[in-house]
Every structure is written in structure tokens, then in C-alpha cells.
């Protein structure tokens, strides 16, 4: 077995927070005088920082306005996000299988760490994850490799024993920038054709298929 450490993205890899994200985005846009955006437009921005999400959705690159968007989004998210987040169907089974077999398990995400902790607590699976590196834990977010490299250093493992699993091109580029293997899962908005443009170890429909590919399960 090549891999000893499995590092996951969070949104659309382990969970689906679409309902909460759409509500928070459109609340924040409304507070700044922008028209709401439809669900599919917003889904395409998941995985970006909130500032980049704002610029993508509005075409406005003003940093001060983007900062206000961040503040409005977070104020609504504190009330709405955790309750409106569900897990991807096989997330618990996959994390449980990895934990049972003593693999290192981490989450590296652009979401704030305390939100991830709240969601894991909601589903009583905090003990299935050894490390969470969120937005507030890095100087430069994904696709910078900083968070991923910090996780690798935390476990004190070699890069060739690490697999990063994610649903977006941001995740794929993060893995490339960190020089670690990447497995793409098709539970987000990126397609198989999107991922084929970049370097990856495999492209699978779900997390269970990735574990089968890695021979963690039959």
C-alpha cells in the first residue's frame, strides 16, 4: 500500500453545503447592493476564497468591497451554514475505514476551521479526522501548497506516501504545487474532462471508488 496519509478537501469532497452557501452569498451580495446569483453560478465558486468568490460573481475587484462581502457572508454563515450542510453519502464510511486501518487523515480547506469542526461535531465524527487546516491557518490559501505542506509536516511523512483528494481544479493545482499525488472525485462542479487537463493519479465518481483504486477496500 503506497499511501499512508489521506488528505481531503472539504466542500463537495466530504460535504455539501450548497443550501447554506447560496443563502450566505446572496445575503452578502444584497447587503452590498448587488443582485442575487443563481445556485449554479454560486456552486462554481465553491473552493475559492470569499474575496475571489465575490470578484468572480460580480466582476468587482475592489478589495474593500470584497472585505465587506466577507464580513456579511460570515455573519450569516455563523447562523446558517452548519445546519444547512450535509455529508456526501459515503463520507463517514470512507473516513471510518481509513481510521480503522490506522491511516493519517486530514482536511485542508478554504473554509474556516471552526466551521469544519462544527460540522464534524454535528455528525459526531470529530474522532475520524486527525488534523484540520482551514482558511485562518495559512498565509496563502489554495492553490498555494502551504496548507497541504503543513499537514505533511504535521504527520512527518514523505510526500510520496500522501494522497490529496478533492473535487476542484483548485485542489488539483494545490496538489501539483505541493508535488503530491492527487485523486479527483466527481462530486463537485468540475468534470472528468476538466481534470484530464491536469496531472492526477485517478479520477473517480466518489470516495469509495478512490479507496478501491488505492486498494484500501476490495
What does this structure look like?
With 218 residues, the chain is an alpha/beta fold. A 6-stranded parallel sheet has the order 5-4-1-6-7-8, with helices on both faces. A two-stranded antiparallel ribbon has the order 2-3. 41% of the residues are buried.
Question: Topology of this protein?
Answer:
Elements: E1 5-8, E2 15-16, H1 18-31, H2 39-43, H3 50-58, H4 63-80, E3 86-87, H5 91-100, E4 104-108, H6 113-122, E5 131-133, H7 146-155, E6 162-166, H8 169-178, E7 181-185, H9 192-195, E8 202-204, H10 207-213
Parallel strand pairs: 1-4, 1-6, 4-5, 6-7, 7-8
Antiparallel strand pairs: 2-3
Helix pairs in contact: 1-4, 3-4
Q: Specify Rg, calculated over alpha carbons.
A: 17 Å
Q: Can you tell me the number of structural domains? A: 2
Instruction: Enumerate the spans where pLDDT stays under 50 for 5 or more consecutive residues.
Output: none
SS content category: alpha/beta
- Looking at CATH, the homologous superfamily of the largest domain is HAD superfamily/HAD-like
CATH topology of the largest domain: Rossmann fold
> Helicity, in percent?
40-55%
Terminal CA distance reads 13 Å
> Could you give a short account of the major beta sheet?
6 strands, parallel
| Highest CATH level, the class of the largest domain | Alpha Beta
Known CATH architecture of the largest domain: 3-Layer(aba) Sandwich
N to C succession of SSEs: EEHHHHEHEHEHEHEHEH
Total number of beta strands? 8
- Mean of the pLDDT scores? 97
Largest sheet: spatial strand order: 5-4-1-6-7-8
Number of helices: 10
Which strand-content bin applies to the residues?
A: 5-15%
Outline, from the CA principal axes?
globular
